[in-house]
# Entry
Amino acid sequence: MIQDLFTEKFRPKSLDQMILPTRIEKLVESGELHQNILFYGPPGLGKTSLAKVLTEKYPTLYINVSDETGVDVIREKIKTWCGTSSLLDGKDQIKVVLLDEMDGASEQFYKALRATIEKYAHLARFVGTCNYINKVPEPIQSRFTMISFDFATKEEELEVMKKVAARTYGIMKKASINIEKPALLEFVKRNFPDMRKILNKVQSWYIMGIKEVGIEDIKQLNYSFSDVFQLAAGKPNAYENYKFMVANYSSKVDDVLASMGTEFPEYIKENYQSQIGKLPLLIIEVANHQAQRTQVIDPVVTMLSCIFACQKILNS
# Structure
């Protein structure tokens, strides 16, 4: 088991293995692809897993759009794939194009995709996934049935969290790792809703030969961007901010900004007790920068501005 990635070893293989809100379960329970579907929402919630489960019984072309973002992919792969389908195959033999991480596509890719979806509507279905729906143009969105993985209510969030905790406990048991109930709940809470992150950390314990996990072990876990948080909590230094962030995180702007809104407040709470009173100001500032992200030419500037603004608040 040590040779297998837990994220793949324990990836759901059927609908009944998926961790989904009841709302989404009802939408996909038939397992049929009558329409083009686009799953969107935070990372690690099972969008790609669900897409693979739904497309398993169809001839499927998988494209990771973040890696293959040029217009040539449309011309040389997708059109060729869709065009070889025959009307004689019938509805059950319709072909599928799975577009993973669609928010990483180029503008040229999107323009070519629009016409392709319409041209092959009688031969193929398109299933897409993305984390940041605001990056997908409206004309593309309108060609898909949109299914949000963002939680619609607190009750729905709690429902999924309970399922994640049960799945995590089961996986740790298979890995022969015992975990106390308070530690399990804290572990899931800190990493929820990212199941991928949870599995990666469980595998780290497994590789290190850890057999018992308590609440203190959970409190010592590193954050996703500990070095970024440490920088944001330090003294303002525009040049050092620029040098460090551009060198290490210029390609992860969205992930950094997302973690600043989720993990950073918890980081401040645990490491800078005297600054807890400034959390509302920090959260508002981060939210403003997240909103600005789509309105700037260079998103790295938004990330740098967010770091600097947090430094000013914490050092005021």
